[in-house]
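Let's practice the habit of predicting before peeking. Look at the sequence and jot down your guess about where helices and strands might fall. Then scroll down.
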Amino acid sequence: MDEIRTYTPPRRGGIQVICHRGVPVSQIGVYHSRVSVYGSLLRVASIGGVCTHPDYRGLGLATRLLDYCTRKLTAEGARLMLISGMRGLYTRAGCVTAQKFEYIVLKPGQLRPGVDDLSLRPATEADAPLCGRLYQTEPVHFARRVEEFAAHFRRPEEFTKAEDWIIEATGRPVAYLFTGLPWEYGGESGADAREVIEYAGSRVALVGALTEVMARLNLRELRLAVPWQDVDLLHLLHERGVTGDHIPLVGHTMRIVNFPGLMRDLRPYVRARLTRSQRRGLRFQQEGDRYAIVRGEERLELDGATMTRLVMGVPAEVAHEAPVASGALGEIIAALFPLPSFLPGLNYR
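Done guessing? Here is the structure:
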């Protein structure tokens, strides 16, 4: 209650609550951000901190509040809603698992020791500008200020057992690697597993540092989710005999809430992938839960969940259900989608 009394809501998003007799009994946090997709800025609203007081569960409060938040964040300009959770509350609201990652679980001895002249040191708040520069060079990344990296270093409790590393080659910082305890371990002390929360920089340096991180922390396993389009990192791992399972974004569901707006955000991306003749007459439409890609007399119309997966990435387990468009429209869709996948990293909510 003290936090609620002193809470100052932001201009957009923020913590939304349902109160009973002046007391909050259900809440949802909405956090707006932008993801740079090869230079196009996609507006995303993340949902987190969803909870209802035990005495008020089963009354549909969270469902009503999520519906309100969805309408509010859409009106505030969001194109994609990203939720840190996979329960029925979200799937009933049209959210689905999506995006494409290769999920790798490294064991001791799987990778050879790191490359020569490579060193590893703990990251500190003084490294925030360095991390900002490295992160900004990533082809797909959240638009993030240096102050957000600094805040992360000041809040070690943000990710349990967080260990952040700067990787240097011949004394020059070339990459960073942020790790934390997998969620299923909770606060378990002495856990010998970690997952990579976020990474940026030289892929050669990152692969070389993985063995050193495991040795320093005496780990039984180190988990790493690599987006499908990060072909350099995947190639380096594959040529060393390290492969993983193909999965959607772990622990998340999502929903495109404004399809025409999303594609307007991505105009530079579209222009870089389609010829002028292919773009002529191309339209992206949404009416309620019906989404459509139209060009001339060709039309692919889908429900929101199916279109979200087509655009953001169809998980391997449902790939056989993916819609297939033929003709010129099919070529256009294949050139545009799926969009590159991204890890929430420090933007996890």
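How did you do? The longest strand covers residues 23-37.
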